[in-house]
Amino acid sequence: MSDDLQNGGPSEAAAVAKRLTDPEWLVNTDPARVLAVLDGATGREEVLAAAVYRVSAHVHRDADVGVRRQLLALDAARYGDGKLAARLAAATVEGEPGTRWGVEWATGSQIDPRLRCNLTNHTGAVLVLAVATAVVEGRPVAVTGSDDGTVRVWDLATGQQAGEPLTGHTDEVNTVATAVVEGRPVAVTGSDDGTVRVWDLATGQQVGEPLTGHTGPVQAVVTSVVEGRPVAVGTGSFDTAVRMWDLTTGHPLGEPITGYPEEEVCAVAAGVVEGRPIAVTGIRDGVVRVWDLASGRPVGEPLTGHTDAVCAVATTVVEGRPIAVTGSWDATVRVWDLATGEQVGEPFSGHHANLVGAVATAVVNGRPVAVSAGWDRTVWVWGLATGQPVGQPLTGHTGWVNTVATAVVEGRPVAVTGSTDVAVRVWDLAAGQPVGEPLTGHTDMVGVVVTAVLDGRPVAITASQDASTRVWDLTSGQQIGAAFTGLARLASGVVGGRPVVVSGDGDGTVRMWDLATDQPVGEPLTGHTGAVLAVAATVVGGRPVAVSAGWDGTVQVWDLATGQQVGEPLTGHTGPVLAVATVVVDGRPVTVTGSRDGTVRVWDLATGQQVGEPLTGHTDEVNAVATTVVEGRPVALTGSDDATVRVWDLATSKQAAPVLSFPEPVRAVAVAPGGELLVGFGWELALLSPR
User: Fold this and answer.
1) 3: part of which helix (H) or strand (E)?
2) DSSP assignment of 484-540
3) Burial 258-275, CB ≥16 within 10 A → b, else e
4) 375: which strand partners?
5) 20 CB contacts (<8 Å, ≥6 apart)?
6) 3-class secondary structure per residue, 157-190
7) CA–CA dist 94, 217 (Å, integer)
8) Do residues 182 and 248 lie in contact, with contact meaning Cβ atoms separated by under 8 Å?
9) pLDDT in tens, 559-599
């Protein structure tokens, strides 16, 4: 390739995009170079190849070439192109044997051709609870807080995590705000550990000691400026106080703002009234309060009128006057003049007796509006000067609308909404119409939406209970950032010539059911001290048995004919046992178990003894175990939250094949009658055939 192409001249995208349909080039080329030219794809095949490359780039860009080959083949199958999948699987990788498993097919329910990159490093099946944006050294970033207790910073231009996670909180991070302190960008975070922490976003270091005072979880944090000094305002849930800290010194400002009834503060917004910074708080008792941030004193009387919790607050200016817009569980939206403390006009009441979960403000055709989102699945736009709805409600969501943010796209005001239907929708507020198709990819409720500007283009940043944070280009509808994400507790057997099903229950019992009558057989089998997470059935010494795996870390064996426990519980795992399967090794029945401790163990069911040492290699919990016989040798296949499947030769206790990698955690593994391997990863399913 010419130096001009390597140096990124204007012809590079056009020249290199033509190579996107070359599997050898896709598999073996430095991922940074491939990712840099994907936007140059134009033809159908090139666009498809670019989508295939992007969807798991967050995994394979840092993996070895063999793993990249496998993941690209898998993702081509997810996009429904079996021929491309086969071509990618057949690509030559220096020093690597050919692939041992070919992808026959895979579901693609959670992929989207608009996907650009993934923000996916919060650990485990966690929830991203808060998002804020900032600019660090001239680059736009997103700051996310999660119930894994970490705070992470993401470069919105590259989709890469910037630096290491910010750690220090000892419980989930509920809220994130950003500010500038002495010229340096900082993030301010509040946690269920009762602390507020300040982080220097340029260095990734905590600034000073934690800001303490709350005696319960910190639910909301906003930043403002008081008498020229940056401050953080935090609200708690149990101590019902609003506290303020000077971000320059880390010291509290004044006494806590108290006076609430014993109700949780669930919303806060900052504003300015007559030149003085104020905070507006919504409380679960339905009262709205305004606080002077300089003095810590309440401003006027509480704003009353709502008859249920106020958990949505926004501030703006209408005809030169500061106002607050509040949304309540009483299904109304109310507008308040913050200078006089009076309600402006009648309540907005279009949400049909369903709670209002979010409000935002915007300007449409030069006039200020409020946008409200409700559990009636609608979004309403209200004229703040007229007190009247603007057009018809915006409909399309099929679930509760939990969150709303506003932005301007190509000169037109839009609202961005997130819902329990897992979709993100964009609405043209002037036309009252949806903009393009819903933005899909999240697999659980979208609970957070914020808007920002990235490289001069408006974007939305969304967070979901599927533990992902996604970034969307609001102009093109393309995603600039993407996502990542149970247990089988039934087994069948034959007892006394009658087919039965064995079930494991959350109450710690194992039960047997006659399939012919749908009736329970005998009494529940008790012994586990926690939930039963998996069961299997087999025959030991000519007698039918069930093997159960429990949250208590034990494996127990039951004689199904007598309903008695066989021997002592099998112990050794140091965490809950999540998966169990049975097979015969050298003529002896064994059970294979996988645990949250990351190990796989093999047990002789006749003696109740562990066979050999634990099988190690997985780096996260083992969720799934299946057994089969390959070329006359018994093997176990194990799936883990580390997004891999490992194959073990049970006769030698050695790994019997290269590791199979997947873009998301593996939660289910099964072997089909023809020897094919079924793998459930994230929300997808793939069928792989041995080569």
Assistant:
1) helix 3-6
2) ------EEEEEETTEEEEEEE-TTS-EEEEETTTTEE-SSPB---SS-EEEEEEEEE
3) eebeeebbbbbbbbebee
4) none
5) 26, 37, 38, 41, 45, 46, 49, 50, 53
6) CCCEECCCCECCCCCCEEEEEEEEECCEEEEEEE
7) 54
8) yes
9) 988 889 999 999 999 999 999 999 999 889 999 999 999 99
Dihedral in degrees, nearest 10, Cα atoms 556, 557, 560, 565: -70
Distance of alpha carbon 340 from its chain centroid, rounded? 43
Q: What is the DSSP letter of 39?
A: G
Scanning 18-168, the segments in alpha helix (DSSP H) are 23-28, 31-37, 44-55, 57-60, 65-78, 82-89
Question: Averaged over 217-232, what is the pLDDT?
Answer: 77
Token digits for 495?
């007892």
268-282 pLDDT tens trace: 777 788 877 777 887
Helix axes 82-89, 65-78, angle to 10 degrees: 170
Residue with tokens 């069948």: 492
Rounded CA-CA distance 414/400 in Å is 19
**CA torsion 668→669→674→675, rounded to 10°?**
170
Interatomic CA distance for residues 74 and 84, integer angstroms: 10
The first and second tokens of residue 208, run together, are 């000073």
Contact 17, 25 (CB under 8 A): no
Query: Taking CA 469 as the corner, what is the angle to CA 463 and CA 470, rounded to the nearest 5 degrees?
Result: 105
